[in-house]
Amino acid sequence: MSKYVLCRMNYKQGGAAMNMMQLVIFRLNEQEYAIDIFKVNEIVPYRTPTKIPNSPDYIEGVLNLRDNVIPVINLKKRFNLENEDTNEDARIIVTNLEGKMAGFVVDEASNVVTVESEKIEPVTEVVSNIGRKYINGIGKKDDGSMYILLNFDELNKEG
User: Quick one: how many helices (H) and strands (E) in the chain?
Assistant: First the structure.
């Protein structure tokens, strides 16, 4: 995948406007997650970052990406998920939020989907103890499966 030039859309169907979003779907272990496509600068194949001494364990290091030195954050470590070695499908999702660039290691970035905003459920109090501030909502797919829409603004603040 390379840079995305896509937009949020409003469609009219039967006289009612539908608010649509485009999301990049990615995997951490067997769970699917999503990020708003407007938060993604690019997606690059994984390469080993340069380690930084005394950094938190979820920061894998830094990469030189087109003359920008960016921190690389392992999302599985950040979320205390089981962390196996990276494989050939691993990607780094590069974000640029408010001028702060960061890369996030994911197992696989599978596709881009267009969804109705109404198919994203708000986060309930049940998940508040597992980092609610990092979650924007829970998405429902037509096949009954779900994905977690992450709040990369919060992740970038702490990265």
Answer: 2, 12
Q: What is the pLDDT along the chain (159 residues), one digit of tens a residue?
A: 333 333 344 444 444 445 888 999 999 998 999 999 999 999 999 999 999 999 999 999 999 998 999 999 999 988 888 877 778 889 999 998 788 899 999 999 978 989 888 888 887 765 555 567 788 888 888 887 889 999 888 776 655
Distance CA 142, CA 146 (A): 9
106 located within any domain: yes
In this structure, are residues 39 and 21 in contact, taking their beta carbons and an 8 Å threshold? no
- pTM equals 0.81
The phi and psi torsions of 152 (rounded to 5 degrees) equal: -75, -15
- The answer to whether residue 114 is domain-embedded is yes
CATH of the domain at 121: 2.40.50.180
Q: Tokens 């390379």 identify what position?
A: 2
Distance CA 35, CA 43 (A): 12
Q: How many structural domains compose the chain? A: 1
